[in-house]
Structure to design on (117 residues):
């Protein structure tokens, strides 16, 4: 699905310019959960028998990294926008979060929320 935002703005020189921004939204982005029947089995990273999934925001990723690294914390969904914001604010914290996302035992899943319908 294509979503367009258009507006008119005035430049410094006094000319009027129409600005159009396109944003593509998709409905075929997988969730990483085996409970989602539309998700490809090769993309399953979260556990099917988990009692809950934890979805974190930027503040948790920035200020509670020690909590996220605890061995008992598994099946975490990290939105792509959160990952980008942590990378923008704290490089060391970003590297720690990326290492958690790459760990097979922690089962962190990066969800592409910006382009999901």
């Amino acid at each position: 699905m294509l979503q367009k935002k258009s507006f008119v703005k005035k430049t410094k020189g006094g000319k009027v310019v129409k600005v159009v921004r396109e944003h593509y939204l998709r409905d075929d982005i997988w969730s990483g959960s085996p409970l989602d029947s539309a998700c490809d089995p090769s993309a399953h990273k979260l556990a099917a028998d988990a009692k809950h999934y934890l979805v974190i925001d930027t503040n948790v990723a920035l200020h509670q990294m020690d909590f996220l690294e605890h061995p008992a914390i598994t099946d975490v969904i990290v939105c792509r926008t959160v990952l980008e914001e942590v990378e923008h604010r704290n490089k060391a914290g970003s590297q720690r979060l990326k290492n958690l996302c790459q760990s097979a035992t922690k089962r962190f899943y990066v969800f592409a929320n910006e382009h999901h319908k």
